[in-house]
Amino acid sequence: MRRFSPKLLFAGTIFSSSFLLFLVQPLIAKQILPWFGGSAAVWSVCMVFFQVTLLGGYAYADWISRHLSARRQVQVHVLLLALSLTLLPILASPHWKPTGEADPTLWILGLLVATIGPPYFLLSTTGPLLQSWIARSQIGTHVYRYFSLSNLASLLALMSYPFLIEPHARLATQAYAWSGVYVLFALSCTGSAWYFLRHTHSLPPATHAHSHAPESDWDPSPRDYLLWLGLSAMGSWLLLAITNHITQNVAAIPFLWLLPLSLYLLTFVLCFESDRWYRRAFFLPVAALLLLLCADGLQDSAIGVNIKVAIPLYALGLFFFCMVLHGELARLRPGPRSLTRFYLMLSLGGALGGIAVALIAPRILPGYYELGIGLVLAALLLMFVLRPTQNGDGAATGKAKTPTGLMARGAAGVLAGLCGYFLYVQVTDDLSGTRRIARNFYGTLQSVDAHRQDPRDDVRQLYHGSIKHGEQFLAPDRRRLPTTYYGPTSGIGRAIAATSGAKVGLIGLGTGTLAVYGRPGDVYRFYEINPQVLELARAEFSFMDESQARIETALGDARLSLEQESPQGFDVLAVDAFSGDSVPVHLITSEAMDLYLRHLKADGIIAFHLTNRFLWMPPVVQEIARVKGLAAALIRDDPDGPGQRRTDWMLVARDPSVLERAGILQASTPVTPIPGLNAWTDDFNNLFQILK
Length: 692
Hints:
Blueprint: H1 6-32, H2 40-67, H3 70-84, H4 105-137, H5 145-165, H6 171-199, H7 222-250, H8 258-273, H9 280-297, H10 302-305, H11 307-331, H12 339-364, H13 370-385, H14 394-397, H15 405-433, E1 436-440, E2 443-450, E3 459-464, E4 467-473, H16 491-498, E5 503-507, E6 523-528, H17 531-540, E7 550-555, H18 558-564, E8 570-575, H19 590-598, E9 600-609, H20 618-627, E10 631-637, E11 647-653, H21 664-667
Parallel strand pairs: 5-6, 5-8, 6-7, 8-9
Antiparallel strand pairs: 1-2, 2-3, 3-4, 9-11, 10-11
Helix pairs in contact: 1-4, 1-5, 1-6, 2-4, 2-12, 3-6, 4-6, 4-12, 5-8, 7-11, 7-12, 7-13, 8-11, 9-11, 9-13, 9-15, 13-15
């Protein structure tokens, strides 16, 4: 019979807690994304909740380990674990669906607290609390390797969800399975608590958790606390800022957010597993060079707009930045006596960095300038980290070793100045080349005038990050021409021509281009989730104001609005919301199709705009139409008209004869089905299957 291994028990508990901690993040986000328009900003708010709750968990672990006896620690923690089981399974209640058009940030936070708050909180306490128990039980001396293990578990959870779990399990199944594993975790944590209670003792005064020979357990100074806080905050800041930049400004590629988060976690794994991974002599110079290149790329230069260059550059930059930040944190880590306080500062810093980027920046910065600011702050922080110390062996004392002294600090100061200059150029270029710029929860919008060789070709354009939402000719005689994705030979142009077009619904406003098709007596009803899009469409473009139709607008998520409205009787319902990286999947499911049909006339057409550089979505619509017995036709249009672009529109109707009008069937293209693709539902869908 094998001997009981307390190391395995504690390691398994820490691993399972971190795995569940990161697995619940995409699981709950997928549940609530459809309720808030599928915006990338929803994920940013979720990240803030996760970081702040993690902070609460670390604060709890620090407080009880310092102020309660071993017996009382175990009693309190086991009681909380038992209470958290009463909240399972983790399924978001439908009553949290938003009903208004206000900023949903606080609503999302409240939903998360009510749905996963206590279980997530207790999972977040596990790492620091059990490591303090390990140190007091003398199970092992390399306590910080458990922190590396926890980050490895987080990384594995992050990668396993989209590849192994999401494609094979429905949301309800995922939630119940997660809840079942959480019960096993609670039992494992209770077993760890029991072992700690049986083998606890006070920490000896001369132990150190560093991987070198044991040294004195030094008392952290206020400077140490500030550095712990600053280094962790800067890592979190750069993670979110670079994620926002590459997904919004460089390329709207679905799942691209996985790359920076994986690299961020990997640096924690490497830096805290062993001291051999982080070497200042290598990482500092490379990070400095990448800092300059990333700052320069923010100016819309050849570096910043080329996808093949920008994504590898910013991904590599984040890896090196975080290796430096987290490597310095690892060099400054204290002994067991201050272990929970160290983790508390790390968590507080991570929360502050996340709050700054996800909550504060969208409300005070007109554009995506937080990355440029973060690069400046990172360089300034290095000036403090590289301050010379009297004791050169920072590994043993917790003081950062600084072989280059004042020269290194001076170089960091110059680096900060150059990054500040590049930020200044970025801001001035934006302000000088942009008519209007606005930012809110949903992202940054810019209206710009593009001047061509022939003044009659000058256009005004609306951008959401790197996505063009529409454009309008500036020449008075061309202002009412349909442009970009909405020409007469496009799918939507043919759909309007094939019906009476008396009442048209449009999900996704953009610049309001489709209003040009309106005739006297027609009604064009736009559904738009972002109030700033409506504001700019009215202020910067004249499509809506000059339309002959009556224009109606409904602010809020289109699907929620349609669920609350009586049948509208649309001749055409255009669903135009799938061009970005955060595809609102809830608008292209079987349940959504049923809702659209409820608002459609018997001979009406539903038109899905599916032009997307990275996703091939026509098979999704075709499969839903097949299951429901509907007729469908793909219109791939490559027009040569002024200001028009190549488009993919999928038209769906109850009666196949409707699609014979206006040459729809004659102009259609066959859709090759994707093997294994089933009709998407609210509970089961998979974007990986349709990646180009």
